[in-house]
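pasting for ref
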Amino acid sequence: MACHTAARQAVALGYTNVFVLPAGIMGWTRAGKPVVAGANPS
C-alpha cells in the first residue's frame, strides 16, 4: 500500500512520529481530528 511505503520513507528520512492510519483520511475526520486544506496549509 502507498501509505506503508510513504511511512517507511518518512522513517528513513529521520521522522519519528510516523503512523499509518488504517481508516485513512475518512477515519481521521470521522474521529473529529483536525484537517488543514488548501494549496499551502500552514
